[in-house]
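DATA SHEET
Item: assembly model
Revision: 1
Owner: S.N.
Input lines:
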Amino acid sequence: DAKTTQPPSMDCAEGRAANLPCNHSTISGNEYVYWYRQIHSQGPQYIIHGLKNNETNEMASLIITEDRKSSTLILPHATLRDTAVYYCIVTRRSGGYQKVTFGTGTKLQVIP
Amino acid sequence: EAGVAQSPRYKIIEKRQSVAFWCNPISGHATLYWYQQILGQGPKLLIQFQNNGVVDDSQLPKDRFSAERLKGVDSTLKIQPAKLEDSAVYLCASSLDTISGTQEETQYFGPGTRLLVL
């Protein structure tokens, strides 16, 4: 399994960009990078995913390095509601089905 | 669009008792997942269904945990008998289908059931 490494915690000032790094140095060519977040007492919520190109949606941007060994999730203007645990996941295929392994994630604290 | 529904939201039982959790996925979603999340850890996959068939139950403690998904729609997860270490949040998720890299692989999670075993 391609494992991911994330810092356990980060702080970000409200209104500033939050840049959350993720290392996935053993990723294979057909494995995707997904990001989810989990706000306290809720189930995880999908944010964004990508293979090798940078991606952007209404929630965030995903920057994947050219060698695909790391990525960064960018929340352009963090708000207090973005305080959550952010999970970087590499999905793999096994027996024709998606396999997902969650790590411990990064706890992002947005500070007023 | 209705999300993933789970019940109950909270459950307190004594060790050696049995408990069951229910999940109703998003309509039309073929894949259903049950996760266990212990406090301070990420979710751990217990079992994954594709329609009504099991595709992965490698981390399910089969001596005490069981799950079924009749008719390929809703699902139940049962623990019998419960142990203290089963105290956790049990999350259900669903996805449209497991097609690599498409939006259909996105998992949608329910609010979870918080279990406390005394």
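QC remark: The CA atoms of residues 63 and 91 of chain B lie 20 Å apart.
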